[in-house]
Amino acid sequence: MNMESTTYIKKNLKTTLVFLGNAAVGKSSIIRRTMKGIFDCYSESTIGAAFASYSKTYFDRIVRFEIWDTAGQERYRSITPLYYRNATSVFLVYDITDKATFLRAKEYLDELKKHNTGIPVIVLVGNKLDLGHKRKVPKSEALIFTEQNSIHHCEVSAKSGKNIDKLFEIVAQNLPEKQPESDSKIVISSSDDENISPTCCGIF
Questions:
Q1: Binning pLDDT at 50, 70 and 90, where does residue 188 land?
Q2: Contact 120, 88 (CB under 8 A)
Q3: What DSSP string runs through 62-109?
Q4: Are 17 and 68 in contact (CB under 8 A)?
Q5: Dihedrals φ, ψ of 143, to 5°?
Q6: What is residue 160's DSSP assignment?
Q7: What percentage of the chain reaches a pLDDT higher than 70?
Q8: What's the Cα-to-Cα distance from 173 to each of 115, 120, 160, 167, rounded to whole Å?
Q9: In 3D, which of 202, 195, 172 has the Cα closest to residue 13?
Q10: Please, which residues bridge with residue 19 across strands?
Q11: How many helices and strands, by DSSP H and E, does the chain display?
């Protein structure tokens, strides 16, 4: 008796990933390390937002990350919700040597809960692990916060590359199989902020 064998193929996934955090915490450096394998200590601050696309195979399926790197300066704060309201994954980035950036990341989580329309995969990201001797944010404190809010945590170093791939793997592992339909296009009009140009977005 012949028995037909069935092959189950995992569906490739796509996620709109938004980086949130203060200026100079290393958001752009994490992206550059991920995409190009390099670190530039003289990188300029992001203006408005920058877009990048990155794909990699995790767990026998391809995951495509459509990345928005948002500016951390206060003047861009009013437009940031436009980028994360439909995000399916979010990195809340802070500098482990700067307690103020950790507190700001916590504020971003509160804002995210108000504006995001779904249930994104959220990772609290402590960057600059290579400067552990200057640490001001204990890992234990970050872990308590993530446990209280049911989100993920990962400490990385954009400079050395440590845990960078693990960071993206956390998202790949926790993305739902059935993804909601969403429009990833970002449109910024003059009514959003009269000082921000619709052409403020860059590409890595």
A1: very low
A2: yes
A3: EEEEEEEEE--SGGGTTTTHHHHTT-SEEEEEEETT-HHHHHHHHHHH
A4: yes
A5: -65, -40
A6: T
A7: 75
A8: 24, 13, 24, 10
A9: 172
A10: 69, 91
A11: 5, 7
